[in-house]
From TrEMBL:
It comes from Algibacter mikhailovii. This is Protein-export membrane protein SecG. One of its GO terms (molecular function) is protein-transporting ATPase activity. Pfam families: SecG. Residues 82-120 are annotated as: Disordered. Residues 97-120 have a biased composition (Low complexity). GO terms for biological process: intracellular protein transmembrane transport; protein secretion; protein transport by the Sec complex.
Length: 120
């Protein structure tokens, strides 16, 4: 398994986790954090702590995803050929013969109907 494949699998896993964490959140203060506890009773973890955890995990997963994407670019195997333009390298320019001049088109000939009109 190549290094790029490992990075690709990690990127997919982190992206999936990021989607799950974002979907659990509710932008209006609800979501998973509102399902814990209710109306002044004992709360499991507390609403504020759950919201903080989801917020921190979103930023952490987004940062990890960005780092993995940038790191995977380093591991991409490239061919042995340079991707630079050969037009800028005077040694790489090969002298190709210029295309020969196109032969001039023959003069327009009268249509074949002229021979047929003489027979009638």
């Amino acid at each position: 398994m190549s290094t790029f494949t490992i990075f690709l699998v990690l990127i997919v896993v982190v992206a999936f986790l990021l989607i799950v964490v974002i979907m659990v959140q509710n932008p209006k203060g609800g979501g998973l954090s509102s399902s814990f506890g209710g109306g002044g009773t004992q709360q499991l973890g507390g609403v504020k702590k759950t919201t903080d955890f989801l917020d921190k995990s979103t930023w952490t997963l987004a940062t990890v995803l960005l780092v993995l994407i940038l790191a995977s670019n380093i591991t991409i195997t490239r061919g042995s050929e340079s991707l630079d333009s050969k037009a800028l390298d005077p040694e790489a320019q090969s002298t190709q013969p210029l295309p020969e001049a196109l032969p001039s088109a023959p003069a327009a000939t009268p249509a074949a109907n002229d021979a047929n009109t003489e027979e009638e």
